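User: Quick sanity check before I run a bigger batch. Here is a single chain. Can you write out its predicted 3D structure?
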Amino acid sequence: MVKCVALQFDPVWENPSKSRGLIVSMLQRAGNVRGALVVLPEMAESGFTNNPALVVDGKSELFACAQSKKYGCYLQHGFAQARGDSFVNMVAIACPQGNVIARYEKTYLFSPTSEHAHYQAGDSVTVARLADNSSKSLSVAPMICYDLRFPELWRHAALAGAELFTLSTCWPAPRADHRRALCIARAIENQAVVVACNRVGNEPNTSYAGESLIISHTGQVLAVAGEKSEILTATIDMKEVRAWRAKFPALRDTRRALLGHCTIKNC
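Assistant: Done. Predicted structure follows.
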């Protein structure tokens, strides 16, 4: 059994220090998350900013590691990070021992807000192995926001072993229905659990409706949040996921040659 938690909140605009304080408060409110997989929104320290130089302070991963160790959980944290002469929109997964075990850089940048002009796109999919309380480790693929609209990315991860997808988003309120429908579709077509954590609140030009989701491998919505800060929780039996994949072999029937190449980072 795997406990999944989405911490839905309103980051303080372009203020990592205050946003980290909110994250700490949410973790305190979440109660016992020892051994759980906890997911934060995209850009959880700053909101969806096009001013990465203003918010990158080199402390994001250290913060995630400190919190994951303190609470004994796996913590997926979203933030901006310097990369060479540019920046990336990324997530890192920190483990209960206080180390980063996986990193993923957003592959599909959101051109309508010129994200591509301020960030560098990632070029690979990450599949991370997390310990669970069964005899088999849990394979998790982190994704970020706009990646949701590109199913081929998810299929590559599923074929590389991903059984659970974590999706960190800053998804605007006007397209909330798209997000829900696409999350359900990604779960069904990849026979995988989806833990989708969105933010709430407002930015200078955008409003967010939250509605974080935890969805089963068959597309059943196990938990859904409202439009305010909220802690969303569901417990998943991964044996059921594996049994369904064995019974209904859609992934095995995939014609891999039609998918093209994708670099996989196994962690």
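The first strand starts at residue 2 and ends at 8.

User: Great, the batch can go ahead then.
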